[in-house]
Amino acid sequence: MTRFTILSLLVSPAWALAQNGGGLGAASITEHDIRRGIAIIADDSMGGRDTPSRGLDLTARYIAGEFARLGLKPGGDSGRFEQRYPIQRARLDGDATKAVFTSGRHTAIASATRDFVYVFGPRTGRPISAPVVLVSGALQLDSARTLDIAGKILVVVADSRAPNATPVNQFLAPAFERNPAAVIMVLNNDTTILARQIANQFRVRAVVEGETADDPVVTMVHERILGDVFRAAGVELAQLRASTTYAVRTIPSLSVSVTVANVGGGGVTAPNVVGILEGSDPVLRDEYVVFSAHMDHVGTNASAKGDTIFNGADDDASGTIGVVELAEAFSQPGMRPRRSLIFLTVSGEEKGLWGSEYFASHSPVPLAQLVANLNMDMIGRNWRDTIAVIGKEHSDLGATLARVNAAHPELGMQAIDDIWPNENFYFRSDHYNFARRGVPVLFFFNGTHKDYHQVSDSPDKVDAEKEARIVKLVYFLGMEIANASERPKWNEESRKKVMGK
Fold first, then answer.
1. What is the pTM of this model?
2. Top-level CATH class of 94-260?
3. Contact 138, 244 (CB under 8 A)
4. Separation in Å, CA 319 to CA 38, 194, 271, 346
5. How many C-beta atoms surround the C-beta of residue 383 within 10 A?
6. What's the CA gap between 194 and 217, in Å, rounded?
7. For 460-478, what is each residue's pLDDT tens digit?
8. CA 255/CA 346 separation, integer angstroms
9. Cα separation of 283 and 386, whole Å?
10. pLDDT given at position 303
């Protein structure tokens, strides 16, 4: 080791803490505690922790009790640890929900019972009619940021498998910032899959309240009913499918109307749990590092034979208990870092990142004061000595992680890059609601497995010893970030890509 490297380590906050009792916090993160905590919240008595459900409320109450035991400051509603957000139960109205395409004498009606899949957006029951903008070919991210689609209906006919194509969800994120009235993705997928999607949309489900009429309605329509009406408007769908050339065009001779409506209703709420540990520095204590995981899962399957409860031990009781263990580690005597810390367990992740979206919109502190989010999801399975850390390339947090991991060879943990880029995991867990608002993030994730979203994701299959080492790595990384003189910085190109501006 060179003299320069030794001196660099000696002056780093992580090294200083390690030499002055920093190991006390890490030592509190144990295999025993992780196994015990997962067994509690992934027990059958929690009923799969659906959002909303009694089991989810019991889980939130347990975590709030742990935060209180550790002396954290409540960061939820009215001096409590729980932050509750409003949702409503509703079912899609199959008669009223549809998309109508007209060109000349040709009309195609995509019915919600046959060719139409609702994705998200306000379900007002009022028809949305507007000029049509069609994008096709290999989607280009830069174009999404400049599309002239305000108040218009964006129709997408694209193949994300084309070389250099931007995945549809990445393309749509900045396109939504251009304020379209609606988005229709034209499908050509297997009709069996389509039938399953159509059946699923008629389940009674919880829907986050607070959507406004200005939000776009996003839907999918199968192309099998659209050939004639598009041809009448001068567009051959088969040619669009065959071409990888990116194109944007208006279709003045095609009119489209989209209607999405609900049946039923009834308001309920669901919990996040927020605990705060105030920092030791009189200036930096006004900045915060957020540790997060989702405590919800997918509930039960009453129609199944045998086991009906999706316990969600790895997904994501593992990350949730990881947050509790981090709170305990930082609460040890002498472990309080310069910056303040937020320990956050959210719900509604499985429904569409609901809880983290609500927290990011109703944070107990200004978003500008959040310097980083370290998110953990499914960290208890697969490799013994490896953790995928997604998002390392987007900010200097990646370099900080590499430095901290090298300083702790006793953890025996290799932090690898995202090896599933086509799965778009960066956009699929709660860290994304921080990233798209400008907060640098890292996502700790061990990948899916055969028990993913199955009743077999049980506590006995979690490798608690391996998870303890991962949580210790997150602890040392969080300590480094919370004690650094400078806050983490985005890579500029990544900031533009993720935030869409």
1. 0.75
2. alpha beta
3. yes
4. 9, 33, 17, 11
5. 14
6. 19
7. 999 999 999 999 999 999 9
8. 41
9. 36
10. 78
Residue-wise pLDDT for 233-274, tens only, equals: 999 999 998 888 999 999 999 999 999 998 876 678 999 999
For 15-46, b/e burial (b = at least 16 CB within 10 A) is bebbeeebbebbebbbeebbbebbbbbbbeeb
Q: Which residues contact 61 (CB under 8 A, 6 or more apart)?
A: none
What six digits make up the tokens of 335?
A: 């472990």
What does the pLDDT look like over 331-389, one tens digit per residue?
Answer: 999 999 999 999 999 999 998 899 999 999 999 999 999 999 999 999 999 999 999 99
Same fold: 13-88+267-499 with 94-260: no
User: Cα–Cα–Cα angle for 238, 240, 241, nearest 5°?
Assistant: 65
Token pair, residue 461, equals: 């299959």
> How does DSSP classify residue 166?
P
263 vs 282, residue with greater confidence: 282
Q: CA separation (Å) from 57 to 41, 163, 186, 344, 455?
A: 11, 46, 39, 15, 20
**HSE toward the beta carbon, residue 141, CA cutoff 13 A:** 15
Helix locations, 207-330, DSSP H: 227-232, 237-242, 318-330
Domain boundaries defined on the chain: 13-88+267-499, 94-260
Q: What is the CATH number of domain 13-88+267-499?
A: 3.40.630.10
